[in-house]
Every structure is written in structure tokens, then in C-alpha cells.
Amino acid sequence: MSDKAPWITYRPELKVLDCTIRDGGLVNAHQLSDTFVGAVYRACVDAGLDYMEIGYKNSKKVFPKDKFGPWRHCDEADLRRVVGDHDAARTGLKLAAMADAGKSDWQTDICPCADSPLDVIRVAFYAHQVSEAVEMIHHCHGLGYETTANLMAVSNITEEEIDTVLEAIAETPASTMVIVDSFGYLYREQIDRLYKKYAAAMAGSGKEIGIHAHNNLQLAFANTIEAIILGCNRVDSTIYGFGRGAGNCHTELLLGFLRNPKFDLRPIVDVIQHHVAPLRKELIWGPSLPFNLTGQLNQHPRSAIEWTEGPNRDDFLAFYDKIVSEI
Predict the structure, then answer these.
(1) Is the pTM of this model over 0.90?
(2) CB 103 within 8 A of CB 63
(3) What domains does the chain contain, in order, with CATH numbers?
């Protein structure tokens, strides 16, 4: 726990990253309008958030432009069309994009930070991709970006694999090592264990510990609070929980919990009412029985997503029998 301020008041060093566009865009292949993305951007600025993740820096060969929207690639022209001459020093908001190991042409597609509205590159990777992730972090740091390390699917790998990743990341210039509950499987006790493991491995490196929680078991907000109490100073959320499958920790809940006077909840409520909530008429996200089941079984939510988009979406028993038989 931070020795600067107890969690019951607020910690000025605790930063909130809203990943509504990046994570929420997974619901519809990042086919989000400029109007929607601009509204979320202005809400994040007006609400006093610290970071906004506006999309991915991923390969057009892997994610072709005729099938995926601009926020899968975050080309500089697309970014500037929406955020204009963004300046973190002026707005107080740092813009981030995520680059996936194995899915990003990071050697060629990421330009120097001085030439981009982006301030942060978040490197996402699975345990077996840690070598590439280390290269990516060094490369992006050399271009002037703040970087983070996001080890995905941590609930589905061994202790030895986690230790190997943490040892490798501790030596990089990444500012943050993020606990990522990709399958929404973790409970409080597991968050406690992972936080202590991550914090011990990063001790002396100057790195913060982050948390990115999914809501398959409706524990994303609770697990984020638990991580904060333990001392986590980098927390992810999405507006109205907008995210693939069961969604994420809600930004509006998180800001209501934190006691930082710089945060203003009203712009978030406004963008929910006028932009995010109306998407429920055409897109599906948030906790439901298929997502609950994949969370309980520590399975990737893709099977639940496919089921909820199919003709038998209400046949929960058939879905349960299907996924149990496949494990």
C-alpha cells in the first residue's frame, strides 16, 4: 500500500486509463464513428482522466482495412482527424495505443512520439511472446514513448512462466507491469497473490503495477478495488463497461469510488447517455450467462461471443454442455 495516502482518501499517484475505444472496439471490429470516438475523447479530457487508449497499432496485413475500422491501426492521419493537435501537457490526458506481439508491424508502423498524437504504447503479449515484447518495449521507448507491459491470460499459465516474464520485463524501460485478467476468471485471493508477485519482481525497477479486469464473473470493479487497496497505481476501465464479451471495470464506478477531486463524473455520464448507451440497440456486451460460464471455467470468451451472436443464443444449457465437452 502507498505510504503517501491511504486508499480511503486518495492517492495522487494513482492514474486511471480509459480503454473504451480500444477494448470496446473489439465488439464490432473497431467500426466506431469519428463522432463516437471524439465524444469519448472529450469526455476523458473533461473528466480529468490520466490516460485514454484510443485503439491498436496493429498490422493491416493481419487486420485488413476493408474488414476492420481505423482504431485497429491508429494511423496518424486518423488520429489527428479526431483529436486534432492533441497535447498531453495542455489537456492533462495522455493518449495510448496497444501493440500486440505477433500482430503488429511495430518496426515500421510506429513513428517517433514527436510526430504522433500518441504518448504511450502498451505492449500486449502472451508468455511465449515475451522475447518479442521486450524488443517492442525497447524500440518504442527509443522512439520517445512511455511503454507498458501487458501479460495476457495470466490465469491460464504456470507460475514458472509468470516468473520468467516478470524477470524479463523488470529489466526493460516499461513504466508499468499490468495484471491482465483476460478471461475474467480471477477472484480476490488471486489478485492478492498476483499483485504481491508482480510487485516483488518489479521492486527497485521504478515500475508501477497495473490492473486490467474483465467482468465475466461480475468482479471487474471489485478486483480493481482490491488491487488499489494493495497499492496498484495504474487502473484500467471502460465507460459503461463497453468491451468485448462481458466487458470491463466501469469507468463511472471507478471514478465514483476514487476520492481524487480532479475527477469529474458528469462528462462520463453525459457520454454514456448520448453515445455509449444507444449502442446497446445494435451491439451486445456485458455480463450474461454464457460469459459467466466461460469465466468460471477459465476459458477465452470467444466461444460465448460466437454463441450470443448465433441463432441459439438463448439455449444456455446447450452452450454449457458444449463448452464443458470441449475442455
Answers:
(1) yes
(2) yes
(3) 15-281 (3.20.20.70), 289-326 (no CATH)
